Structures are given as structure tokens and as C-alpha cells.
């Protein structure tokens, strides 16, 4: 697709952002589907966010993603929110319709779609999540909306927000203090364990919140949302035990796909995007 006077603009706002996969993902999808739009990365300081929003409206930027550290702050500048964004109290996708900016969050649905690709069915299942940060909140909201039976969240510190979610969603959500013996017991009847903390992320790849394989019962499915390294120590434990597992690459691609569809109404060509990102 040639850039012309008709080419539309999308982007991502964050700081830092130059390392992001998102421009490659969305530009690959636009090209493959012959959509005359481009997607760029905008690295702005917090005190420039207001000006960024003015630019979105002035230049008619059709939509944008939001990453750290602005997923909460950006909400001050938006006109409306989807149900998911309201529940998460965070936004990573914004659609511009004639100057009206609506905030959405695609991280949780992205994770859910990655589960579907693995043929994991979370309906009526007990889920255990390690960590209660932003990514975890989005996953909790989506899995609760999709009909999980119960979600147990282990975090080292208290998170009142998780208790609020328990009141708002039709799925019991329990917050427990990280304690490996309690966790071991919980995992005995768990369908899916989701690791959302930074523990095990590069460069600290030898770290793992699960001490050894004996914590992982037969049949347990394991997702680690870390994608660098591709195989964390937790996933090596899962592999050695013969369990079904996935890393964070699927969540990255599918959160992009959810944003893409929210903006364009079209499905992202997942396989081409994965190939472009070297994920196949
Ligand atoms: P993200 O947006 O990726 O979810 P985040 O919001 O910074 O990142 O959340 C990081 C999560 O990892 C939090 O749950 C954090 O625990 P706290 O809420 O107690 O800070 C968790 N985390 C980070 N380092 C950890 C560690 N060494 N041990 C246990 N949990 C850790």
C-alpha cells in the first residue's frame, strides 16, 4: 500500500516505546489487508499528554494504543469507556470517532484468545493467578466475564482493587498473600495457573515463584505472560513435567488483534503478524 493523501494514522503513546512490537504488528496487518493506514510510535512525557490528545483531535488520528506509564492517566482525557475499561480502571486502546475518544482495554481479551488458540476452556474452571498488577487485573476481569468458576490471586502485597472486582463481577475472586505452601494446596484442584509478575523476566531468568515441579499437579495448564525469555524457569518446570503451557507471545499478538478489530472491524491476520515478529 502506497502512502498517499488518503492514508490514515494510528499509533501508540507511551514512554519508553521505541522497543514496542505494536508498529510492526499493525503495519503488517494493514499491508496484508490493503488498508490505507499506518501506525507509528509516539514517545511523550507525562506533561505532554494533554498536547498529545489535542494532536489526536487536530490531526484526526483514528486510534491509538496506550502503554506504560499512561494506562491510567490517559483516562482523564477520554469521553467514554467500554465495560472492560471501566472494570479494569485502565485503557490501552482508544478509538477516535469525530473527536469523541472512547477507551477500551484489550489485554484481558488478548490473553483469553491466546487460551482459545491453545484450546483451553476456562468456563467453570478454577484459575490461580500469581501477581495483581495491571496485566493481572485485565486478565481477571476477562476470565470472570467469560465464566470462570473461581479466581484465586496470590500477591505479595495487598490490592484493595481486587476486592472491589470481587463485588462487581459474577465470579468469586479471592486475594491471598503469597505463601508457597498455601499455593501448593490451591494448585491441587486448579485448571490453569497464570504467572503475571516480573519474576523470571530477563535478565533475572533464574528466578521463579514456584520452588519445584512437585507444586505442579498432573493436568495443570500453565501460562507465563513473560515473553522475554520465551521459556521462563516456570515454563521449563512445566515442560519437564510434560504439562501444557504457553508464554506471553500469544497475549501480545492477540491484544493487538483485539485493538485492530476494535478500530477497523477486521480480523488481524495472526499468522502473518507472528511470522513478522519471529514468533513462529
Ligand atoms: P504489569 O503491568 O506487567 O502487570 P505491574 O502492574 O508493575 O506490571 O505489576 C507487577 C506485579 O508483579 C505485581 O503484582 C507485583 O507485586 P506487588 O503488587 O506486591 O508490587 C509483582 N511482583 C513484582 N516483583 C515481584 C517479586 N519479586 N515477588 C513477587 N511479586 C512481584
Outline the structure in words:
The chain has ten helices and twelve strands. It is α/β, with parallel strands linked by helices. A hairpin with a 2-residue loop joins strand 5 (93-97) and strand 6. Helix 1 crosses helix 10 (270-276), helix 4 (107-117) crosses helix 5 and helix 4 (107-117) packs across helix 9 (249-264). The chain is globular. 2'-monophosphoadenosine-5'-diphosphate binds at residues 131-136, 155-157, 196-199.
Properties at a glance:
10 helices, binds 2'-monophosphoadenosine-5'-diphosphate, six-stranded parallel β-sheet, six-stranded mixed β-sheet, alpha/beta, single chain, globular, 280 residues
Tell me about the largest β-sheet. Answer: 6 strands, mixed
Instruction: Determine the number of helices (DSSP H or I, runs of at least 4 residues).
Output: 10
Strand content: 15-25%
Shape: globular
Task: Outline the low-pLDDT stretches.
Answer: none
Short description:
The chain has 280 residues and is of the alpha/beta class.
What secondary-structure arrangement, pairings included, does this model have?
Blueprint: E1 8-14, H1 22-32, E2 37-43, H2 49-59, E3 63-66, E4 80-81, H3 83-88, E5 93-97, E6 100-104, H4 107-117, E7 126-130, H5 134-145, E8 150-155, H6 160-168, E9 173-177, H7 180-187, E10 192-195, E11 221-224, H8 233-240, E12 245-246, H9 249-264, H10 270-276
Parallel strand pairs: 1-2, 1-3, 4-6, 7-8, 7-10, 8-9, 10-11, 11-12
Antiparallel strand pairs: 3-5, 5-6
Bound molecules: 2'-monophosphoadenosine-5'-diphosphate.
The site of 2'-monophosphoadenosine-5'-diphosphate has 13 residues, from helix 5.
